[in-house]
Design brief:
The protein is of the alpha+beta class. It is built from three helices and six strands. The relative contact order is 0.26.
C-alpha cells in the first residue's frame, strides 16, 4: 500500500527471459519511489498542465474550477530511482528463477518488495503497471486517511 502522508519506496525485482535466448533470464533490481498523493481541488486546477490537450479539455477544466466546489482529485506520482539499480543474467527456466527470487525476497522480510515477471523489452512497462496497481489498491485507504485529517 502507498503511504498517504509520505513517499513509499518499493524495492522491485523484475524477472524476464531474454528475447531469442531461451533459458537466459535477466533479473533487474531497483527502487520505485511513489510520491505522497497530491490533493487537487478546484482552486488549484490551474496547476494542471494541459500541454497536448485541445481547447475543449482546457474549457472543461475551467468549468470544473468555477462550478465544482467539492471536486477533489488525488494525483499520484512516482520516480524510478537508479541509485540502487542492478541486473544480472542467469541460465535456468523462467519459472524456476522467478520462484528463487520470490523465496529470497520472502526470506529477507522486506515488506516493501515486489517480484514481477515480465518481458525483457520494454521492461519498464511492468514497473508502470506495478505503480498503477498499487495506486488502485491504496486509493480507498488514502481517501479515508485524508478525509480523517480534514485534507479533503
Amino acid at each position: 500500500m502507498l503511504e498517504t502522508f509520505g513517499s513509499t519506496l518499493v524495492n522491485y525485482h523484475l524477472v524476464s527471459e531474454l528475447e531469442d535466448a531461451p533459458n537466459k533470464i535477466r533479473i533487474r533490481e531497483g527502487r520505485l519511489e511513489a510520491h505522497q498523493p497530491l490533493v487537487i481541488a478546484p482552486d488549484n486546477l490551474a496547476e494542471i498542465t494541459t500541454e497536448g490537450l485541445g481547447e475543449e479539455a482546457r474549457a472543461y477544466l475551467e468549468y470544473l474550477r468555477e462550478n465544482e466546489e467539492n471536486l477533489r482529485i488525488l494525483r499520484y506520482g512516482y520516480h524510478l530511482k537508479s541509485d540502487h539499480f542492478s541486473e544480472q543474467i542467469v541460465t535456468d527456466r523462467l519459472s524456476v528463477v522467478t520462484e528463487r527470487v520470490k523465496a529470497a525476497v520472502l526470506e529477507s522480510g522486506d515488506k516493501f518488495a515486489a517480484v514481477l515477471q515480465g518481458v525483457d523489452s520494454p521492461w519498464d512497462v511492468a514497473l508502470v503497471e506495478l505503480w498503477r496497481q498499487e495506486v488502485m489498491r491504496s486509493i480507498g485507504k488514502n481517501i479515508v486517511e485524508l478525509h480523517g485529517r480534514g485534507k479533503l
